[in-house]
Fold this sequence. Notes:
disordered N terminus
Amino acid sequence: MTTTTPxxxxxxxxxxTPRTTPAPGAAISKLxxxxxxxxxxxxxxxxVGIRAVGxxxxxxxxxxxxxxxxxxxxxxxxxxxLKIWPSGREWLPIVAYGVMWFxxxxxxxxxxxxxxxxxxSAMLINVSPILIAILAGIFLKEGFPCWLLIGSGVAFCGxxxxxxGSGQRSTADVAxxxxxxxxxxxASVSAILxxxxxxxxxxxxxxxxxxxxGAICCLPWTGQLIAEVQAAPLPATLGLVYLGIFPTAxxxxxxxYALSLISAGKLAATTYLVPGTTILISxxxxxxxxxxxxxxxxxxxxxxxxxxxxxxxxxRQPRQPRS
Length: 323
């Protein structure tokens, strides 16, 4: 089966023709693997960065500042090569994931990390890959294996354990858990909506469109952002700039690029590495260690994730003819 290889991130599609994904079972390029690794590491660092700058920026203003920086940086790359714009109904999924992912997800996550440590937040967001796999099986026809249901149930038990441990400390932590779960749902739906957009637009373009929509939604926090930037220490402001450039402009683009090469369910599975990476970065930078319930719940989540991957590995193996 012949397929069309997607253009490089930030580059327009040749002759504006529809973009297609590789045939099932096709090998992923080294560039695709690099995109996945970059996404995991930078998204893990985002949980720590949000926690670090949280005392200086409120959830809404932090989201607006992060998106504003990302819009400028990514716009410098995308705009000079942008030959076509979305038209009519093509804007619907872009506006949807722009509002939900770049806007709502970031505000919810920023608010949650005022209550939870970075590692626990990353573990709770780790529900998102399971939801993406389920939604992809339904709406993108990527398959709906029974092991996915079993693994999802186990992973949700892990989330319940994290919530239980948080609830023993304060009701504010319970609110943080709920905000993380809301962010996970918003990210999951958004990933499904973004997949079809990548058939026509490049990773950089699809990401920049969403960033701009999210930034527009966050404009009511402009005054608060200006006031907080003026009052914030330099390290906090530099942290905001880091969040805008690396986990947003770069990591969301590498995610979109990988999504144009890999099925949504399989790609989502790679983000299971984010919580562990976050805990290591958080321990090194913020000296934060999750509670024992958070650690146990996180391990249970990862076991559930491993069960969802079991079916994927089995389906890759062709049946051997009998002798």
